[in-house]
Design a protein that fits this description.
With 734 residues, the protein is an alpha/beta fold. It has 25 helices and 21 strands. A seven-stranded parallel β-sheet has the order 11-12-10-13-14-9-15, sandwiched between helices. It has a six-stranded parallel β-sheet with strand order 16-21-20-17-19-18, sandwiched between helices. Strands 2-3-4-6-5 form a five-stranded mixed barrel. Bound molecules: adenosine-5'-diphosphate (ADP) and magnesium ion.
Length: 734
């Protein structure tokens, strides 16, 4: 009998265990049982060959149509080419070697059906059409001899699980191993409470493992998937419910709104009316800050919705209450900009201790990783003494050396770049109680993600943009219309002549060979062999200087010294530059209302959300914004579809859903998630909103009734092991 922790070695023997360990990183019985089939094949049904993509590791069911040997002039001298079909498309299996040295020649006669596994590639002969092929595939003949004994239909309906595999693994290894493990499996009591299973119409765990690995029918498979999916959703929700509960129980210093403080003074001077949404969310936050437990709120608002003002008002409320606020920004550029704009908006309200400072003024300090020793020392002192009511900074704020006199509020801007653990690092800086936390994101988060990744936060949404914003026009500048590109440069000159400013963004810095600087590799779904490397700003710069002769061009990227970055941004903000040539360092938050054109080079190399963010840098004032997506992606390609989608709408929510559909879960939950032990195998954030919502409901109730899970020991065990293994994966997202 084998339990879930049993090493595979003990159950399967050294040889097989080693293969599974090396090939798929599976070590225990539990690992193997959670290695679910990727697909299921009907014995009677062939795989649709046209659906296969280059580079994909596949297992297909197909029928041999032709077997042909070919002598090669070069090594290894001979190739056996076997053509298989699904009835419509063709696929070639190539076995290189010496003539007569291969089994396939005998086993794979025309008419034979089999499973073939390998990596799809395209082979282009010097003459003739490109051929889809599997080089040296693993294969397994699906013998037809059982057919006579079984009813024909039953045989054809048999479900054959197809596992994610690797090249080195014989096709049948996983299936056989899973079978052995299932036969010897000894499970503890079901971790899910019995009445919950009944209420939610879920089958037991053992039946679920059986049903997913060796289903006797599609119904059984469906029930198995439902149960296992539930477990994935539920365990995460229990963890989040516990986090919420623990956080809510902590003490915090209440900072109720006060009259006649800096906040009131600031409100009175605001050069614009707050939008209805800003007012409403502001009230929610004001009420939260007045409570004796820490606020944990997520503020979502599309690019340009005006989140900064909302945050600043909250910070001032805390300053009025005698505390300090920290504003954490994801990049140096953004931290500097926040510091500049907050200082600017506050005017003499930020000049405490200076001549001309207002009566109840405070100070705004800036702390970044690479600022000079003197500036840093000053900022550290202002934070520690409490002289600075607001401290703006990057990750540098998280360091131990940074201390606050009385940290009352932490604002995290552009949350998607910070993880839960980092939020915690800041929270710990408050002696005694915990600070209130406000997290802001411009990437609209679909509900499912909000309930999962951000499941420990309450949510507010800034729905509408401030009035007076003009729509941004977006156009794709495609390779088949070279005139559009010429027009792009003309358009830039025209805008500059009107005194407007222009961003030009490239995917890379491209200073030296192999320099990946601010590269955006992970967001490039089409990444792969054979593409030219993305444009770098250093390559583009000389050409721009020619094309845009007479315009003042500045360069901004992540490798510049922070002072240089700051200087370039200042010059751009101060209209001393016409064009800012940059990498994605300007992706988030940069706010220059006079900038009207955003040109994105190699736009197909960026993700949908990134494009939306970049586009949000223009059209921020009352001036009409224009966004041009320059690409050499061919019409009809996936990349072009994405660009067309971005051009067709400025609705961030729609785009973020599209983005979600195009990414794998791993990318949504963080890079680590895509790796070894993803906690999500069946659950998808795109399609399983219902499951996630139900699980959240049940989990909240269960944790309310039994906070430390003492009445649910099985569940506690599962949770503990998930948190051990996958903590970084699903709670942290940097
Ligand atoms: P985001 O939500 O993207 O962070 P910002 O806070 O940077 O947006 O605001 C974008 C711009 O809109 C800023 O220049 C800001 O001063 C301006 N703004 C914010 N609220 C309003 C408002 N109610 N009316 C007019 N302009 C506003
Ligand atoms: Mg912002």
């Amino acid at each position: 009998m084998a339990n879930l922790d049993e090493p595979l070695r003990k159950v399967l023997g050294d040889k097989t265990a080693k293969v599974l360990e090396k090939g798929l990183d599976l070590h225990t019985v539990g690992d193997l049982l959670h290695h679910y089939p990727r697909r299921y094949a009907h014995r009677g049904e062939l795989t649709q060959l046209s659906s296969l993509e280059d580079g994909e590791h596949v297992t297909v069911m197909a029928e041999v149509v032709k077997v042909q040997g070919r002598t090669l002039t070069r090594n290894p001298g001979y190739v056996l080419e076997i053509t298989v079909t699904d009835g419509t498309g063709l696929l070639q299996l190539s076995f290189f070697g010496r003539k007569g040295s291969y089994r396939p020649e005998k086993e794979l006669a025309p008419g034979t059906r089999g499973l073939f596994a390998g990596k799809i590639s395209t082979y282009r002969p010097r003459s003739g059409r490109a051929v889809r092929q599997l080089a040296h595939p693993q294969y397994k003949v699906v013998h037809e001899k059982g057919a006579a004994e079984q009813a024909a239909q039953e045989w054809a309906d048999e479900i054959i699980p197809i596992y994610p595999s690797t090249k080195a693994l014989p096709i049948e290894t996983i299936g056989t191993s899973v079978g052995t493990v299932l036969d010897q499996l000894s499970l503890p009591a079901d971790p899910m409470p019995e009445e919950l299973l009944r209420r939610r119409d879920l089958i037991g765990l053992r039946a679920a493992y059986e049903g997913i690995h060796r289903p006797r029918g599609w119904d059984e498979l469906g029930r198995a998937r439902k149960r296992l999916k539930w477990d994935e959703a539920f365990v995460i929700q229990v963890a989040l419910a516990q986090r919420r509960r623990a956080a809510a129980a902590l003490p915090a210093t209440p900072r109720p709104p006060s009259f006649g403080g800096v906040q009131a003074e600031f409100d009175a001077r605001l050069p614009f009316e707050l939008t209805e949404g800003q007012r409403q969310v502001g009230d929610e936050i004001a009420a939260d800050l007045a409570l004796e437990h820490p606020m944990h709120r997520l503020l979502q608002g599309d690019v340009g919705a005006g989140k900064t003002v909302v945050a600043l008002r909250a910070m001032l409320q805390v300053v009025d209450g005698g505390g300090q606020a920290a504003l954490l920004a994801p990049t140096e550029v953004l931290a500097q900009q926040h510091h500049r704009s907050i200082t600017g908006m506050l005017g003499d309200l930020a000049q405490a201790g200076q001549i001309g400072g207002a009566e109840n003024a405070t100070r705004v300090a800036l702390l970044t990783g690479s600022q000079g020793a003197k500036a840093r020392k000053e900022a550290l002192l202002d934070a520690a003494s409490g002289a600075a009511g607001i401290v703006v900074g990057t990750h540098a704020l998280l360091q131990e050396s940074v201390q606050f006199a009385d940290l009352g509020l932490v604002v995290v801007d552009e949350q998607h770049r910070f993880g839960v653990e980092q939020r915690d690092a800041l929270r710990e800086k408050t002696a005694g109680g915990r600070p209130h936390v406000l997290v802001m994101t411009a990437t609209p988060i679909p509900r499912t993600v909000a309930m999962t990744v951000f499941g420990d936060l309450e949510t507010s949404v800034l729905g509408q943009l401030p009035a007076g914003r003009s729509q941004i026009q977006t156009h794709v500048v495609p390779p088949e219309k070279p005139a559009f590109l010429a027009r792009t440069w003309e358009r830039i000159k025209e805008e500059a002549a009107k005194g407007r400013q222009i961003y030009i963004v490239c995917p890379r810095i491209g200073e030296q060979e192999g320099d990946e600087g601010d590269a955006i590799a992970s967001d490039d779904p089409q990444a792969g062999e054979g593409r030219r490397s993305p444009l770098g700003i250093m390559e583009v710069l000389p050409k721009l200087e020619e094309l845009l002769a007479g315009l003042r061009i500045g360069v901004l990227h992540g490798k510049l010294h922070p002072d240089e970055k700051d200087a370039v941004m200042r010059r751009f903000t101060g209209r001393e530059l016409d064009v800012l040539l940059a990498t994605t360092v300007i992706e988030v938050g940069v706010d220059v209302p006079n900038a009207t054109v955003m040109v994105i080079m190699d736009a197909d190399r960026f993700g949908v959300s990134q494009l939306h963010q970049l586009r949000g840098r223009v059209g921020r004032g009352s001036l009409q914004g224009l966004c041009l997506l320059v690409t050499d992606a061919e019409p009809g390609s996936k990349a072009r579809e994405r660009l067309d989608a971005v051009a067709s709408t400025t609705d961030g929510f729609r785009l973020s859903r599209l983005d979600l559909e195009q990414r794998r879960e791993g990318d949504v939950l963080g890079a680590a998630q895509a790796g070894r032990t993803s906690s999500l195998r069946l659950l998808t954030l795109q399609r399983d909103e219902d499951v996630i919502r139900d699980a959240r409901e049940e989990a909240t109730a269960l944790v309310e009734a039994d906070p430390d899970l003492s009445e649910h020991p099985g569940l506690a065990t599962v949770l503990a092991s998930l948190l051990d293994e996958d903590r970084a994966d699903f709670l942290e997202k940097t």
